């Protein structure tokens, strides 16, 4: 997907022209995957653009940096203000924001201690398209999710994303929309870029972080909304057969929102957009657009 260029990118405290936000070819993070990132959405509301759950995204960025031993030279408050400064400058009404902290040019080799941390914030237009009513088609990938004992799944780090990229390429080459990854023990983990949910007999289930799945902020949003609707929620181990036998399956992520699943491995699901999936998708849309007052605290006006 081509990225629509904005006017500027925030780079280590300075707004620089989009095409001048560059790094050296010997940047440590480029060679060794030593970086952490966040994807955050800005939605158009009746009161102007607003960032969804900005504080939670920045807390996870700091937590990820701590786990992989990357010093973060800015506080959450400084990064929040920098984000709003960038968005006011670009004047985007609906966009995707990428927070990125990585080890820069300084030394080569696996020793991380001699390379400085570089921090950037970029945004590009990302209209909120309603989820396809027909749902997406998933394929179980031959690639397994990273072992939780090899890389911390709670860290949204750049290196482990090669796992997701390989799985997504395999799925799209085979004609599917997205890949489902299994954990090393064969249980369900997550999709290449989204958390996965199964609904059966009115109970909503999603895999735990121990499966190698990222603790998604949109996942947490969906679970909160479901509980508030009175739905029974379980965060527990799932097998692939649990998805085959589900009444409804959907995925969630910052970029995707709440998206129904039509089929898995060629097996059509009973309801591509079932009753609960539809309720949660509509409530999520109302929340991010500012139409649902109970959750306005999740929105940071630009």
TrEMBL record:
Pathway: Amino-acid biosynthesis; L-leucine biosynthesis; L-leucine from 3-methyl-2-oxobutanoate: step 4/4; Amino-acid biosynthesis; L-isoleucine biosynthesis; L-isoleucine from 2-oxobutanoate: step 4/4; Amino-acid biosynthesis; L-valine biosynthesis; L-valine from pyruvate: step 4/4. Gene3D superfamilies: 3.30.470.10, D-amino Acid Aminotransferase, subunit A, domain 2. The gene is ilvE. Acts on leucine, isoleucine and valine. It comes from Kitasatospora camelliae. It catalyses: L-valine + 2-oxoglutarate = 3-methyl-2-oxobutanoate + L-glutamate; L-isoleucine + 2-oxoglutarate = (S)-3-methyl-2-oxopentanoate + L-glutamate; L-leucine + 2-oxoglutarate = 4-methyl-2-oxopentanoate + L-glutamate. Its EC number is 2.6.1.42. GO terms for molecular function: branched-chain-amino-acid transaminase activity. This is Branched-chain-amino-acid aminotransferase. InterPro entries: Aminotrans_IV (IPR001544), Aminotransferase-like (IPR036038), B_amino_transI (IPR005785), BCAT-like_C (IPR043132), BCAT-like_N (IPR043131), Class-IV_PLP-Dep_Aminotrnsfr (IPR050571). Its cofactor is pyridoxal 5'-phosphate.
């Amino acid at each position: 997907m081509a990225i629509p260029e904005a006017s500027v990118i925030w780079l280590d405290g300075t707004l620089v022209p989009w095409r001048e936000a560059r790094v050296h070819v010997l940047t440590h993070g480029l060679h060794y995957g030593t970086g952490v990132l966040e994807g955050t959405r800005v939605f158009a509301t009746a009161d102007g653009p607003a960032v969804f759950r900005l504080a939670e995204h920045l807390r996870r960025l700091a937590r990820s940096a701590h786990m992989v031993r990357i010093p973060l030279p800015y506080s959450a408050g400084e990064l929040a203000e920098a984000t709003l400064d960038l968005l006011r400058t670009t004047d985007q009404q609906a966009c995707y924001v990428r927070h990125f902290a990585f080890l820069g040019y300084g030394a080569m080799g696996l020793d991380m201690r001699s390379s400085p941390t570089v921090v950037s914030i970029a945004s590009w237009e990302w209209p909120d398209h309603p989820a396809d009513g027909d749902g997406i088609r998933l394929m179980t990938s031959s690639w397994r999710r990273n072992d939780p004992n090899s890389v911390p799944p709670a860290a949204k780090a750049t290196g482990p994303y090669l796992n997701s990229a390989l799985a997504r390429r395999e799925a799209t080459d085979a004609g599917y929309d997205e890949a489902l990854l299994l954990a090393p023990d064969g249980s369900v983990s997550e999709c290449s870029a989204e958390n996965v949910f199964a609904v059966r007999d009115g109970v909503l289930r999603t895999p735990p972080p121990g499966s190698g799945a990222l603790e998604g902020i949109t996942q947490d949003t969906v679970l909160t909304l479901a509980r508030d609707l009175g739905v029974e929620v379980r965060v527990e181990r799932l097998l692939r057969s649990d998805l085959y036998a589900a009444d409804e399956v959907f995925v969630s992520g910052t970029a995707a929102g709440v998206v129904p699943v039509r089929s898995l491995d060629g097996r059509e699901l009973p309801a591509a957009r079932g009753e609960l999936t539809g309720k949660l998708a509509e409530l999520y849309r109302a929340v991010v657009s500012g139409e649902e007052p109970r959750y306005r605290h999740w929105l940071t006006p630009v």
